[in-house]
Amino acid sequence: MRVLGLDLGDKRIGVALSDPLGWTAQGLAVIAGAGGAKSNIRRIREIAEEHEVEKVVVGLPLNMDGSAGPRAEKARAFAGRLAGALGLPVELWDERLTTVQAERLLIKADIKRARRRQVIDKMAAVLILQNYLDARPKR
What is the pLDDT of residues 34-78, one digit of tens each? Predict the structure, then answer.
């Protein structure tokens, strides 16, 4: 089962895709958010159809105390619109500290600052999706 992972940012959406067995996540793309929600959903639909995705996981940016702030509410609203547009199950997954973790991994890999900005959202999407996949019971 292929699963798509999304990291919703203010300016970009990081996209990750699982392998066909749903065990590992790989970075796939970064969608520039300048086109607005409709354009972003259209592009996500194209990606989902192209890769025969069966489920989508959207990162839920909770506060450190577990409460939901304005960004979490935006993610919930977007996930609801996405589920309606794709006709696929869309799950929310706690993404606390994934961007920080992605930044640290990229620094450790000696990726230059300009390049990190280009791939940080994709890397965060990979971490969100991999955490989701690891938490699922294996068949």
Answer: 678 889 999 999 999 999 999 999 999 988 887 888 889 999 999
Are 91 and 57 in contact, with CB atoms under 8 Å apart?
Answer: yes
* Amino acid making up residue 133: L
| Domains by residue range for the chain, with CATH | 3-135 (3.30.420.140)
pLDDT one-digit tens code per residue, 104-122: 877 777 777 777 677 778 8
What is the C-alpha radius of gyration for the chain, rounded to an integer number of angstroms? 14
Q: How far is Cα 122 from Cα 129, in angstroms, rounded to an integer?
A: 11
* 8 A C-beta contact, residue 125 and residue 27: yes
Closest-CA residue to 56 (of 114, 8, 115, 119): 8
